Amino acid sequence: MLRLSEAIQAIISGGPFPGLMPRIREVTAMHEATLVRQIYRIAEQSLEGRKVKRVAAVKISVGEMSGALPDALEFAFHAQRSGIFEDAELLIEKEPVAVRCKVCGEEYSPQGFPIRCPLCGDTACAFIRGDDVHVSGIQYEKED
Amino acid sequence: MEEIEIEKNVLDENDGIAQANRKLLADNGIFAMNVIGSPGAGKTTLLEHVLPKLAGRISTAVIEGDLYTDNDARRIAAAGAEVVQIDTEGGCHLDAGMISRKLQNIDLKTKDLLVIENVGNLICPAEFDLGESQRLVIISLTEGDDKPEKYPLAFLKADMVALTKMDLAPYIKADAEKMKKQMTDIHPGLKIFDCSFRDDQYDDGGLADYILSCVRR
């Protein structure tokens, strides 16, 4: 039996909480709900001026170091469906991390921490990919 | 079926507002600090102890993110700082828009330092730029010495870390050096301050002086 105080704690922390149902983990990962609101807003703006009967899918790319959980995004997306998005699916592509070495310019995919350039060995780097969530496409049916 | 291709970051809107906040703060010569940490890490306790050290030397405003209560805001006000509260009503993080609205309620011209105490949470707030100059992550020794590598994003995006409750080291198993190694593996060169705050003991590891040096830069 889950105690209320534990559930609230899980909601606030949003973190891994042994013994909690995965469902609660999804419900509580609320920053994904914020991200999903933006996903809908971006999709609506991108479809402006087009005659749309229904949206079949919104495609997003979720970086491995974005801090967002794909399952939680999908849950939040379904929870917020309405209008032309009523039966839309969220197609999620996971994006691996890529960085550029700030010293020698080498582009590489780090394998865990510390992130270290395979060429020159330096740890200073800038993210090129894999640290964000972005909308990459929309599939829709035109109005007849 | 029609398909359109786009390439738009979901945090673009937040990041745009954050940049505007950053410019507004810079134009007023304010150093802004976004304070992030788990519930119970000691965010409010740290501010209660550090802010009085700064009082009289600089003028500070604090934006308090709290879920439902104004307990933290009352504690900070008692420490002598001007406090503006954001009640997130269960929201797990602050975003740049919330800060933008609250900045209108603060007399920026008379302030040197803005402290934003984020909602207690080490995951969600890490993703949201508020327009801060630097980000301070607070983690306590009692959270366990496996935590930095469990929440890498928080440390990757931090500029400085306060490792709190160091006075409890003799009584618990957690290894402070192991935690620091994880943090600097994630973020080489990260500034880490060892802190203990109790009524009979004040040790900020140099944090207050460092904040002062940032404010006066």
Write the topology of this structure.
The complex is a heterodimer of chains A (144) and B (217).
Chain A (H helix, E strand, L loop, with lengths): L3 H10 L8 H7 L1 H18 L4 E12 L6 H10 L9 E7 L2 E4 L5 E2 L16 E5 L3 E10 L2
Parallel strand pairs in A: 1-2
Antiparallel strand pairs in A: 1-6, 3-4, 3-5
Helix pairs in contact in A: 1-2, 3-4
Chain B lengths: L1 E8 L2 H16 L3 E7 L5 H12 L5 E7 L4 H8 L3 E6 L8 H8 L9 E5 L16 E7 L6 H4 L1 H5 L3 E5 L11 H11 L4 E4 L1 E3 L2 E3 L3 H9 L2
Parallel strand pairs in B: 2-5, 2-6, 3-4, 3-5, 6-7, 7-8
Antiparallel strand pairs in B: 9-10
Helix pairs in contact in B: 1-4, 2-3
Please characterize this protein's 3D structure.
The complex is a heterodimer of chains A (144) and B (217). Chain A has 144 residues and is α+β, with helices and mostly antiparallel strands. Chain A has 4 helices and 6 strands. The model of chain A is unreliable at 7-29 (pLDDT under 50). With 217 residues, chain B is α/β, with parallel strands linked by helices. Helix content of chain B is 34%, strand content 25%. Chain B contains 8 helices and 10 strands. Chain B has helices spanning 12-27, 43-54, 71-78, 96-103, 147-150, 152-156, 176-186, 207-215, and strands spanning 2-9, 31-37, 60-66, 82-87, 113-117, 134-140, 160-164, 191-194, 196-198, 201-203. In chain B, strand 9 and strand 10 form a beta hairpin. Chain B is globular, with a radius of gyration of 18 Å. The mean pLDDT of chain B is 94. Chain A binds chain B through residues 9, 11-16, 28-31, 34-35, 38-39, 41-42, 46-47, 50, 56, 60, 65-68, 113-114, 123-124, 132-142, and chain B through 1-14, 38-39, 67, 90-93, 95, 119-124, 126-128, 149-153, 156, 182, 184-186, 188. Strand 6 of chain A pairs antiparallel with strand 1 of chain B, so a sheet runs across the interface.
